[in-house]
Amino acid sequence: MRPRTPGKAPASPVRKAKPARKAGRRHPLATVALLAIGLGLTGGAYAAFTTTTASAEEPQVAAASQTSVDEGKKLFQSNCATCHGLDAQGSSVAPSLIGVGAAAVDFQVGTGRMPMQMQGPQAEQKPVQFTDEQVKALADYVASLAPGPSIPEQKYLDGKGNAAHGAELFRINCAMCHNVAGAGGALTEGKFAPPLTGVSAQHIYEAMITGPQNMPVFNDLNITPQGKADIITYLKYIQNNPSPGGFELGSLGPVAEGLFLWIFGLGAIVALTVWITAKSN
């Protein structure tokens, strides 16, 4: 062991100098920075372009829509708020309209069921109280409160679907209440399923997606939009074509037919028997 020299500090280990960064080599974060700058410039340019386009094309549409909503709000507060509340939150005598959508308003108001004339088992159809523009304004206002079913597209209302498929869907989903011929029928507690003759295609579609009265809601998972169009086609077909079986007795089914035979058929047989007996004497 070498003796330590007094008065001298131990020598520190010699550190190797780090090699200088190669000339022209990028920093590891340079690529990320360039990407961020590029995305920012692209996004800014796109936002500026879309804002310019929107400002040139959308003012009339937005203004018209807001005007319709404001008009609908005035009509609602003066005609509907008594039962449904000023904010359409509902009351003890009427349900909330938050989330029912434009389709429900167009059906209920457009068929005259609303405003109700009097409290009863269900709202009955009567002459419409508002113009088409006022009905649309009311629908726009209620639709602005929360998302809900909207007015159906015209392509599903032209009556050019598959009537055979529509007949099958109608028998499975609707005939138990509305009758296979759409003639309507009685329900419980004084309620009834109305006849579907003379009902517009738009109101039939809206009834399926909103479920008025006792009717269930048939959303697009239950019956597709094309399936609804097929049902409308079937209903229009049977409305515009005569019954192949002759006198249809209101299309009310076996009850009406049995009653007709019991009264008139057996009555005729009894009358004929009495006549024959009288002649034989």
UniProtKB/TrEMBL annotation:
Broad enzyme group: translocase
Matches recorded under Gene3D superfamilies: Cytochrome c-like domain
Residues annotated as transmembrane: 259-278
Keyword Iron appears in the UniProt entry: yes
Keyword entries, A-Z: Cell membrane, Electron transport, Heme, Iron, Membrane, Metal-binding, Repeat, Respiratory chain, Translocase, Transmembrane, Transmembrane helix, Transport
Keyword match Nucleotide-binding: no
Biased composition (Basic residues): 15-25
Region Disordered, annotated ranges: 1-25
Reactions mediated catalytically: a quinol + 2 Fe(III)-[cytochrome c](out) = a quinone + 2 Fe(II)-[cytochrome c](out) + 2 H(+)(out)
Cytochrome c domain mapped to chain residues: 67-146, 161-239
Enzyme Commission no: 7.1.1.8
Topology of this chain in the membrane: Multi-pass membrane protein
Classification via Pfam families: Cytochrom_C (PF00034), Cytochrome_CBB3 (PF13442)
Assembly behavior: The cytochrome bc1 complex is composed of a cytochrome b (QcrB), the Rieske iron-sulfur protein (QcrA) and a diheme cytochrome c (QcrC) subunit.
Protein name from the UniProt record: Cytochrome bc1 complex cytochrome c subunit
Organism: Leifsonia virtsii
Source organism phylogeny: Bacteria, Bacillati, Actinomycetota, Actinomycetes, Micrococcales
